Amino acid sequence: MRSLTVAVSTFSILLLLACDGNAVEATDPVVQASESQVVQSPETTDAATQSSEIPEIQPPEMNLQVDDALPETFRGGNSAVGVVHVLEDQPYKRQENSLLYEETPQAMGASESATFDGPPTINWTTDQVGPRGSVQTIANDNSNKATNISELQDPGEYRVSNGGARQVNSTGGGAVSTATGSADQIAISDNASGTIASGEAVIATSSQRVTSTQTMGVICHDVTSPNVWAVFQEAAGDTREALDESELKQKLSEQLLAGKGLFDPAMPVAETLKRTSILAVSEFPLNKKPAEKTAAVGVKGPLFSEVGKDEVKTAGTADMKILDVETQTRLTEVVATDSLKGVFVRRNVPFIVTALATDNGDKCTSTADVNCRIEIKDGMEVEKVDGSYLFRIPNYPRAEYADQPEYLFVMEGADKDGNKTVVRLPLYVLNTQMSVEGGRNE
Amino acid sequence: MIAEGAIRKMRPVSYILAAMGLFFTLLTALSAQESDLVSPAPTIDTGKTPWLEGVTIPNKPLDISPVVSADIAGENGNPFPATLTEDLPVLLTAISDIFAEKPPSSWKGTELQDAEWTGMPSVRWFFEDVRKNQSTLASVAEELPETQMKVTPLDPTLSGAVTITIARPMKYRTGPDSFKRTFVNASRSLCTVVSDITPPVCGLEIVAGGDSGMVYPVESPLHKHPLPKLANLICRGTLFGITGSDEHVTIEGIELGKRMIVPAERAALLLDKNAVITLKPLLQDNQQVDEKSVKFGISNGAGGAPALVGPANPAELNLAEIKLPERPYLFIEAADIAGNIQILYIPLKIK
């Protein structure tokens, strides 16, 4: 019996809620305003003003949604923030709806005789929110459609909005329109002066352009592995003064920022980097869908050839694989391939190596340090000698030096969202007497 | 509440009926509750509202998202201008409660406690051609207050509109330690006429036997302000070549208007004194040529109003039948529907 009583009480509450909802609807300030306001145009004549006692239609609300958006809790989000989470470069369907887009305008509070004069003008606008809260409109699509499929190409915070405007013609009662000029309440004329034809028996017509708009906050998440670059500089065999590691890093940073982290075999290289060897892993092609993202592996210099051939080329591509399904982070792994067997250094020739990364999270406008090192295959890190790496015993060809350790050049870059780029390439130590001209090792 | 005594006196059939009644009552109540939470998908007739194709969401937001009023004012607080002039920038100001210190404290009967703005407003300005249903986002390079925009309508129209949409993020308290974020929106669209200040750019196509020629102006630079508008005069065709060769002459920087004269030393139509020529007007304007105003033929001299020699608007002219003046010119005069007039003179050289 108690449960029945509770159920009935619940029903009563539900009934009250429903009634309350109706009451709220009835006191909708938009509707109230539309019933009380009389529109006055600044440039109408008295007669026109008198005739246009047609209530102004207030902008109706708009509903806006991104289909198949990520959960509100994605990457630490929560529902109170009220933003939509999406992945960069992933097309999403957006849709919006409003009373403005219906067949007739009466639901907006227009008079019974009012009609829409043509289709709505619909704009889809994207604003980017800057790091200090500044807002900049970056795109607008005047599609005149209530749905829109599009993607955001850069991670960050955005505002996506839809705005609609539509002409409503309302017919008033019996007065003569002699209005001149054309403001929002004046019917659009067909002659050049903007003067509206008048007539003794003309029923005053008021034309209002009604608007509706809605905006949503969007967080576009980074699913692109960072671009990572390493530069190797041998400290022997060059009569010019070599750069120290910090200078080398500075030059590498300038090179990265000049090309926004992208490796292009035809790129101009700073004079000070011309005698170095560069290994670069960078997103290519840009802005592919998350599932199709790849990185190009580029090399420049003699250290990527067992015969010391100095060349610039794209040595291959690597897929950006899903690192974590829940957070949709990506991992680009670069390992040895037929076109890039490893890094070839000469014995008894000290060298330094440094690495940096750029990320599309800030449009590759800054660089960050990348951990790079040389490991023995068992995981132990090779120590530097006087700040440089130096190998005294060759280990290549492997068949000849099977007793010598296997080395790995390791480089690991990560962005703030957890996307990673990891390079693990064999590092081979060649006989110092290597003859580059002969194209073979001695 | 139902009294226990009443229940005791009920028969088994009554129990069943009561239970059924209660079941349906609950079902209805639950449905009502559900409909309060999830609005039904809209019924859309894409034959009547094709722009809604693919839309599956209700026409009102489910969450709180206040709408506040907005208006547009002209310069110095004047009313929004009923008429704008093409190519002439106008400074407009958005007026809205969205720029107020605090966001709305209630919406549709719901109090929004501790409401605060959480970001800058997004203000978007559009110029629209209502008849063409085209909208162009306005942008300005110079630094202006967030409420202002310089709008430059580029084409004349009798059905223009300036539209603003504004959004600003806010938050309101939903619990002792919790807030909800949403957007406040405002929008306004005001109709206007954009007056045409550019004369037509009409030309003539001339055919004489196997030779032909065309003369027409091209507004250059486009959208020049202040006046006068300038144009390049293009003369091309074999009738401009001394040896019958195909000539292409561009005369730059001619003022677009009533005194557009092709300099004889730059280009002239070379015609035989007994030539029979056909004339075809090439009509073009950035709004609409008033076709009733179009007049073409041969004029005695150039400049000012044409001094017509021979018939007006001839499709064909036999020069042997006309007493040609000492300084004969072909001309075309045309006005657009706004009353801008263009007169173009092309010198004739009779062989």
Structural account:
- The complex is a heterodimer of chains A (442) and B (351).
- Chain A is mainly β and 442 residues long.
- Chain A has helices spanning 2-26, 29-36, 46-51, 245-258; strands spanning 62-66, 83-87, 92-98, 115-116, 121-129, 135-141, 147-150, 156-171, 205-221, 227-234, 277-283, 294-301, 311-324, 329-334, 343-346, 351-358, 368-369, 371-376, 407-414, 420-430.
- In chain A, the strands form 3 sheets. In chain A, strands 10, 11, 12, 13, 14, 15, 16, 17, 18, 19 and 20 form an 11-stranded mixed sheet that branches. In chain A, strands 2, 4, 5, 6, 8 and 9 form a 6-stranded mixed sheet that branches.
- In chain A, a hairpin with a 5-residue loop joins β19 and β20 (420-430).
- The longest helix of chain A has 25 residues, at 2-26.
- The radius of gyration of chain A is 34 Å and the shape is elongated.
- The N and C termini of chain A lie far apart (99 Å).
- In chain A, 42% of the residues are buried.
- Residues 1-52, 173-204 and 434-442 of chain A have low confidence and may be disordered.
- Chain B is mainly beta and 351 residues long.
- Chain B has helices at residues 4-8, 12-37; strands at residues 70-73, 83-85, 90-96, 106-107, 110-111, 116-117, 122-129, 134-137, 148-151, 157-175, 178-195, 203-208, 211-219, 230-237, 247-255, 260-261, 269-271, 276-282, 289-300, 308-309, 316-318, 328-336, 341-350.
- In chain B, strands 2, 6, 7, 8, 10 and 11 form a 6-stranded mixed sheet that branches. In chain B, strands 15-14-13-12-18-21 form a 6-stranded antiparallel sheet, with no helix packed on it.
- Chain B is elongated, with a radius of gyration of 35 Å.
- Mean pLDDT of chain B is 88; it is low at 1-37.
- Chains A and B meet through α1, α2, β1, β3 and β5 of A and α2, β7, β8, β10 and β11 of B.
